[in-house]
Amino acid sequence: MSYLKRLLPFAAPYRREIALTVLFTLGALFTNLAVPRLLGQAVDEGVLKRDLQAVLWWSGLLVGVAALRSVFFYLQGVWQGTIGADIVRDLRNALYAKLHRLPFSYYTTMPTGQIMSRMVSDMDAIEQFVAFGFTAMITEVSTFILVLVVLLQLDWQLTLLALAPMSLMAIPLIRFRLKLDPAWDAVREQMGRLTSVLQENVSGVRVVKAFGREPYAVSQFERENALNRQRNIERGQLEAAAFPTMDFISGLSFTVLLLVGALRIIEGSLTLGVFTAFTWYIWSLIWPIRLIGWFVSLSRQAVSAAKRLFEIADAEETICDPVRPRPAPPPRGRVVFEEVHFSYPDAPTVPVLRGVNLVIEPGQTVAILGTTGSGKSSVINLVPRFYDVTAGRVLVDDMDVRDYRLSDLRARIAIVPQETFLFSATLRENIAFGKPDATLEEVIAAAKIAQVHEFAEKLPKGYDTLIGERGVGLSGGQRQRVALARAVLMNPRILILDEATSAVDTHTEQLIQAALEAVMRGRTNIVVAQRISTLQRADLIVVLDQGRIVEMGTHAALYARGGLYRQLFEMQMRAQEAARTLVESPAFGG
């Protein structure tokens, strides 16, 4: 239950609302306790004495109390539901904000589907417990105690005899409790796997269709869905075995009450009215006991859900603002790597960068080149501090990136990634994502530079056209140009292009490069690129191999040296020539 205790800080802001709920709960409780007494009085004072006026009097009072009880129950239900929704809303907001503070390394080990399952399905389990289960549990426990006191006052001997069979509930209840925890853990974990499969196959639907793997995707989902069904059946079987046992024991209590009560009435030591009230009270006593199984199931479900949710809350924020951030220096765009070593957190023994030393002056365009796995992406990920170095320092404008506030550091950097991600919003909102207060004129200016304006005008609603989830309504080249426009609009001091023109044709790339020359002038530009045109325009080319800088210089100097750069350059030339020959062949209509 320690995980559920961690919900208390989220309940603290609603003390007043909780106090009102408690007040309504007490009102419902006491009016509910008054009903059996009034019914007993109506029997003894009216029915048995054949006094119609007394019957009407007690009946009217009974109706009034029952109506008041209904009002209290209504107010209790409204307020407890509101409080539960408020607490879950705050918890969901807090965890969502935490997700945005977690480093990239967290997402390499936590599938997106698992996160979605926790933020939706597990949150629903918490809401059910907070909004209804917890309040109902308190209400029923209070009812049990008060009813027990009333019953002992009415007839303590009859009370003990009637409740004696209920002691037998302890055995099935304990067994139920011990088996239910792992059952709910299995249900929650399997739901996370099912959500992961759903998310991956829907997000990758183009790949699934392209390779004709729809039957496999369907069978994969059906397999996980079948396992989800099995986990729920196993959990349901536990409840099915426990609840009838509790009902049977409750029935024994009524049997004892009927036999003993009848004997007491016959011998004259118990009135019919008291027996009627006693029966109603016994039912009020047995009902909370019968609900114990439901409470246990609901609470264990909530514990399993809370455990998974607080795994997100407890995840370490390794990339965060320093305790005492230094004032950010004037943005100039100077980037320095000093003896940088780097390994990814999930593979700390595998070095990715080894002793990298590099100085990039303001206004320079630096191209990073290397084979797959050479460390190109790691270099550009360290500048905005997506990861921290293992050893050494990365400086931006002569200050260690770890001394910046993250917002200050990243405000001077714009990134165009190789894999473009667009949101299911309008074209204008996607371009202005980094500067949401940008005017339409500013958006259009950035779009013209990135060669977006020419196709934006042809869209049904222009810049207000919804482009679909992940930009599915645009081609790959169009999506990449939108990402370029998004970066241009931020007017950054440092521009990072991670093979940003890889998805556009040569003609469009030439247009973008020509337009970007004006934008890149006076800024620091770090470009991970393979295309010859980009390499030849760079002020400095850095060649990486196995995490080390093996060559550095201009295109002419490195080509003349005849090392790794020349090999990569000529390899690309041959590949382009082969592609051109293939396109010009008769098979392609050349």
Short structural summary:
By secondary structure, the protein is α/β, with parallel strands linked by helices.
Description:
- The chain is α/β, with parallel strands linked by helices.
- It has two domains: 10-313, ABC transporter transmembrane region fold (Up-down Bundle); 335-588, 3-Layer(aba) Sandwich (Rossmann fold).
- 64% of the residues lie in helices and 9% in strands.
- It contains 21 helices and ten strands.
- The protein has helices at residues 2-5, 8-11, 15-47, 52-101, 104-109, 112-163, 170-203, 205-210, 214-267, 272-290, 292-313, 376-382, 406-411, 427-431, 440-449, 453-456, 476-489, 506-520, 532-537, 555-561, 564-583, and strands at 335-342, 353-360, 365-370, 391-396, 399-400, 413-416, 494-498, 524-528, 540-545, 548-553.
- The strands form two sheets. It has a six-stranded mixed sheet, sandwiched between helices. Strands 2-1-4-5 form a four-stranded antiparallel sheet, covered by helices on one side.
- Strand 7, helix 18 (506-520) and strand 8 form a beta-alpha-beta unit.
- It is elongated and about 120 Å long.
- The chain starts with a helix and ends in a 7-residue tail after the last helix.
- The relative contact order is 0.08.
- The mean pLDDT is 82.
